[in-house]
Amino acid sequence: MISNFMYETPTTLVFGEGVIKELPNVLKKYGKNVLLTYGGGSIKKIGLYDEVYKLLKDFNIVELNGIEPNPKYDPSVINGAKLCKEYNIDVVLAVGGGSVLDCSKAIAACAKYDGEGWDLISGKVETKDALPLVDILTLAATGSEFDCGSVISYTAINDKRAYASPFIFPKVSFLDPRYTFSVSKWQTACGTADAMNHILESYFAKYDSILNNGMMMAGLKSLMHNVKIALEKPDDYDARAELMYTCTLACNGIFANGTGPSGWPMHSIEHALSAYFDITHGAGLAIITPRWMKEILSEKTLGKFVLLGKELFDIEVKNLKDAEKVIDAFYKFFESLGIPMHLKETGVDASKIDEMADHILEYDSTYGPHMYVNLDKAALVRILKESM
Ligand code: NZQ
Ligand code: ZN
């Protein structure tokens, strides 16, 4: 069955080798004053920073650099919004991975707001406007280039929030797979695990259809096949291109439209892990995935494992024992990508499990009609303990 849904993506995707030559034409629609945002310097190493400056010789560029993985409200969003106001910025140009894009989305909204920006991000105040945002993606993972989400951490209060507003959809996203050749094995593996999880979060939902299931299985197969090639041969254009496009689609809603309540429980758990211990998002998800699957496995959910087993691992699932084999196959797949499959290996301290479970229930809520399977505090604690 396909349940009712409403869907809109106003973002233009410009995909392929050499596409950023269109950047000046795109930006000039918005104005001359550009805030260029980027991270710790990877864009300089791959020559993209110089390429952007060459293309934008007729624009006034102000820079915000040093945006952190798991981007921080303080200082990055605060400083970026301040620069926008001070220099009368017309458009934000984000160049980097999901963290740079997410941070830039929050900056674009906070630049148009005079109060405390965290009120927008935490949902206390409704977002009513944002500066236009254009991006050049350098890491295939989050799908931030094609969605209206932004995940921002506020270290002082151990909080990591998924913020969403139609105003922060990128206007245009440039996707040139060559810029991802330099992505490390670790980030390639974690980015793929993140995108796989986006599909799984949508798959474990109340409804399904031949169409939804088909798109999701194709997405998972594409990621699982191409990541192996990219890890082996980082400059394989075709593999990087397919990874990039699949990651872009995986979080945008296209695969999930009509599947009804899911709740994205693994992301709720991971956001607490990153907020407390600043771990890499995709690694946290890969570790949680098999433990969450074991927690929710029952006669009610068994049907969901049949297709996963058949399509991804050639496992015929007839009973709960067979489904456990599928769960083990996911564990082994993530392990084969080089992801350590225990949270303690990523620096997570077990003494915070109880506090994190309370935090998840309070801020992300894994209980209620929006969930495919409810997780109460005891369930969250079990998943986290099993993941250690
Ligand atoms: O900072 P630089 O120097 O650019 O280095 C980055 C960073 O260290 C590096 N990198 C990026 N492109 C590279 C590169 N290194 C070499 N070559 C390149 N071409 O990779 C490191 C990680 O970058 P980051 O942007 O943090 O990774 P990712 O794209 O996985 O983003 C993760 C963030 O996105 C959020 C996560 O929670 C996390 O904060 N998410 C955003 C979502 C969304 N907006 O819809 C959904 C996701 O579920 C996720 O929560
Ligand atoms: Zn994610």
Question: Can you give a write-up of this model?
Answer:
This protein has 2 domains: 168 residues, Rossmann fold (3-Layer(aba) Sandwich), CATH 3.40.50; 204 residues, Dehydroquinate synthase-like - alpha domain (Dehydroquinate synthase-like, alpha domain, Up-down Bundle). The chain contains 15 helices and 8 strands. The strands form 2 sheets. The chain has a 6-stranded parallel sheet. The chain has a two-stranded antiparallel sheet with strand order 6-7. The relative contact order is 0.11. Zinc ion (ZN) binds next to α7.
Assigned CATH class of the largest domain: Mainly Alpha
Specify Rg, calculated over alpha carbons: 20 Å
Major sheet, described briefly? 6 strands, parallel
Helix content: 40-55%
As an assembly, this protein is single chain
Name given to the CATH architecture of the largest domain? Up-down Bundle
Short description:
The protein is 48% helix and 11% strand. By secondary structure, it is an alpha/beta fold.
Task: Tell me the layout of helices and strands.
Blueprint: E1 12-15, H1 23-27, E2 33-37, H2 42-45, H3 48-55, E3 60-64, H4 73-86, E4 91-96, H5 98-110, H6 117-121, E5 133-137, E6 149-154, E7 159-164, E8 172-175, H7 185-203, H8 210-232, H9 237-250, H10 265-277, H11 281-296, H12 302-313, H13 320-336, H14 353-364, H15 377-387
Parallel strand pairs: 1-8, 2-3, 2-4, 4-5, 5-8
Antiparallel strand pairs: 6-7
Helix pairs in contact: 4-5, 7-8, 7-9, 7-11, 8-9, 8-12, 10-11, 10-14, 11-13, 11-15, 12-13, 14-15
